[in-house]
Amino acid sequence: MKRFILVCAFVAALGAYGFAQQSTAFAEKPALVTAIGQSADFEMIKVLLNRAKVPYTADPLVKAEKLDGSAKTLVLVVGASSKGLGAAGISAEAELVRTQALLKKAKELKLSIIVMHVGGAARRGAMSDTFIKPCMEAASYAIVVASGDEDGLFTELAAKAKISLAKVDRISSAGAPLAAAFK
Amino acid sequence: MKRINRFMPVALIALLLLGGFQTVFAQKAPTVIPEVVSAQGMVASAHPLASQVGLDILKAGGNAVDAVVATAFANGVVEPNANGIGGEGYIVIYLKGENKATSIDYRSRASFNPPKEGEKWPSYGHRGVAVPGTVAGLALALEKYGTMSLAQVIEPAVKLAEEGFVVSETLAGVISDNFKKATENPYLMSIIAPTGLPLEAGDTYKNPDLAKTLRLIAKEGKDAFYKGEIAKAIAADMKAHNGLIDENDLAQYKAIEREPAKGLYRGYDIVSAPAPVGGFLLIQSLNMLENYNLKFLGFDSAMKLHLFSEVLARAFDDYYDVLGDPDYVDVPMQALTSQGYADAKAKSIKLDAMTTKYEKVNPNSEHWSTTHMSVVDKDGNVVALTQTLSSFFGAAVAVPGTGIILNNEMGNFNNKKGSSAYAPGKRMNTTIAPTLIMKDGQSFATLGTPGAMRIIPTLTQIVTNLIDYGMGIQEAIEAPRMYCTYLQGPGKTTIELEGALFPKKTLDDLSLLGYKVKSYDKRDLYFGGVQGIIIKDGQLHGGADPRRDGAVFGY
C-alpha cells in the first residue's frame, strides 16, 4: 500500500510539470533572454527569471554579433506579435533572419537554449509557427503553456529534436521548471 | 507596346472583375456566433456581463438610454482595457416618440494648463492624460433622455467591480500585451497584475476601489467626479507626477449635446457622431461609394478592396485639415457630408491602379448642395454609444485609491496643425463613430466599433455588407475585413486584411494593382469589435463580434 502511495505521489509530481520534464538542472548562468517575434511575453519571462534569481541580460532585439560567450544560456521567448514587431521597427522576415543567425551563433558557442512559449493559443498562428520551428530544432529544453500545444506542434517538434518539453497550465507555473533548469 | 498599354487597364479590370463575379454568388457560410433574434428589447456590447446588465435594465422597465448608460458603466468595469470613467465617448440617440435624433459629445479635452514649448504628448504617463468625459456624458444622457436614477443604473457596475468577474482569453491577452507599460504604475499593477504577473484567463478580476468610486458617483452625482473627492484624488496624482490636469480643469468639464452628422446612402439615412469625431468620415466614404455598384464588383474582390482604399484615403484628407473641435474651429459639416463634395472627390479614383497623386478638393470652395454599445427598447428608441480610453489601458495611469484608469487622449494632438492642432481646453479629433441607420423614417440599425484608425474602414464595410450585399447583422460582422494605410499618402498604401478569409486570388490581384499586402491569418481584434442590432420585419436581430468577447442579449 505504502509503495502504491509512493508511486502515485511520484506520478502526480511528474504531472505537475506536464510530461518529459527535464530531470536535472543543465543550464549555466548567466542567461541572455530575447524575444523571438517581439511579443510582450518577454516581459513576463523577465519576472520569472527575477523570481528564480537567475542573473540575466534582457535584449529583445539582440543580434548574433552580441553573443560573445559571456551568457551561457540563451532563453528564447517565442511568439509573434504584429504590434510588437511594428513597435520594434522590424519585419517578420528580418526577425526570422535575426533568429536564424542567433541560433547559429549559439550553436557555435555551445550555449544551452531554452525555448519558452507562454502566450498559449493566442500566440500561435502562421507567423508564430515560422519562429517556433527553427527555435525548437535548436533548443535544449522547452517550456510551454499547454494551450499553445493543443495541436501537438511542440510535442512533435520536441520529439523530433529529442529534447524535454515541460507543459504548464499557466504563465505563473512556468517559473518552477524554468528555475529548475538552471544549475 | 503603346497599344498593349492602352488596353492593359481594360484587361486588368476584366481580369479582376472575374474574381468579383465568382464571389457575389458564393454560398453563405454559417456564422461562428449565431445571430440573436428577439421581439422587444436588445443589448449588444463587447462583454456578456455588460450586455446582461443592459438587458436587466430594459426588463425592469428602463428605456434604451437607461440601458445603454448602465451597460456603459458596467462595460467600464469588465472591459477596463478599453473604456471606463477615466475615458470618454460619444452617444447617438434616436427617440421614436419625438422622431428626434440627437448626440452627446463627452470627448475628453485638454487641460487649460499649457504644455512646454514644442512638447510632444507621450503615449503613456500622466502628461498624456486628457480631462475625462465619461461620467458627465452618461449623466447628461440619463438626465435628459433616461427614466431611471444614476444610482439605479450604476449599481450593477458597482457589484461587478466589488465581486469581480472571470478574466476572458481576450482580456488576458490585452493585459499581457500591455504588461510592460503597466509595470511603471504600481497601483495599476495592483489591479491588473496583483501577483506581479498579469492576470490570466480564468482568474478573477476585482477592483474594489472602483466600486467605492462608482458608489460615490451614484450617491452624489457627477459632481463627485468633477468637483468632489474624486476630482481631488485625480488632481493630487497629476500634481505628484508632473501631469497637467488640475481641479479647475475637472470642474470646468461639460458634456455637450450636438446635432448629429447626417447623410443618405442608397435610400438609407445615416445618423452618426458629429465633430470632433469621425461620423462624417463614414458618411463621406459612403457618399463616394454610392457612385459604384459594389454588388457587381463582388464582396471580396481586389477591385472592391482597392475602391475602399481609394475612398477612405480621400475621406481622411479632411480628418486633419478640416475637422476640429467645433467650439474652436468652424467645421463645414454640411459640405463634408454632402453628396456633391463626395462626388467631386471620387472623380480622381481609377479602378485599374492605386492612385499615386490626386488633387485634393476644398470643401469651402463652393456651396455643396446637400448634405459603439447598441441598444433598442420596446418603444423603438435606439442608441449607439462608443467610448474609449484611446489606447488599451489608456495612459497606464491608475489614480491611487479610486480604481480609475485614465485615458491617453492627448497624443491625438501630436503633429497636428490647423483645425486639429492643440489648444488649451480643446477637444481633440478622433475617429469614433457610433452610428444609427434609418429607412423610410424607421430605425434600421445601430452600429459601432472600437479600433482607432480602423473604425471608419470597418464601419464602411459593415454598412455596405448590410445594404449592398444584403448580409444579416452577424454575417456582416463576421465577414473578413480590410484596412488601408491611407495616411502614408497616395501611392504608398499597404492593404492589411484578414487574408486567410479572402480568396488567394484577391491578395494576388491587390499586388497587381500596386499595393503592398499585409495578411492576418485569422479574424483579428486589430480590425475592431463591432456590436450591432438591426430591425427587420418587426424583429430585432443582434450581432456580436467574435474578434472580441462581444455578446448580444434580447427578450
Automatic annotation (TrEMBL), chain B:
It catalyses: glutathione + H2O = L-cysteinylglycine + L-glutamate; an N-terminal (5-L-glutamyl)-[peptide] + an alpha-amino acid = 5-L-glutamyl amino acid + an N-terminal L-alpha-aminoacyl-[peptide]; an S-substituted glutathione + H2O = an S-substituted L-cysteinylglycine + L-glutamate. Keywords: Acyltransferase, Glutathione biosynthesis, Hydrolase, Signal, Transferase, Zymogen. It comes from the Bacteria. InterPro entries: GGT_bact, GGT_lsub, GGT_peptidase, GGT_ssub_C, Ntn_hydrolases_N. Belongs to the gamma-glutamyltransferase family. GO terms for molecular function: glutathione hydrolase activity; leukotriene C4 gamma-glutamyl transferase activity. This is Glutathione hydrolase proenzyme. The keyword Isomerase does not apply. Pfam families: G_glu_transpept. Cleaved by autocatalysis into a large and a small subunit. This enzyme consists of two polypeptide chains, which are synthesized in precursor form from a single polypeptide. Pathway: Sulfur metabolism; glutathione metabolism. The gene is ggt. L-glutamate binds at R107, T430, T431, A452. GO terms for biological process: glutathione biosynthetic process; glutathione catabolic process. Residues 1-26 form the signal peptide. Its EC number is 2.3.2.2, 3.4.19.13. The active site is at T370 (nucleophile).
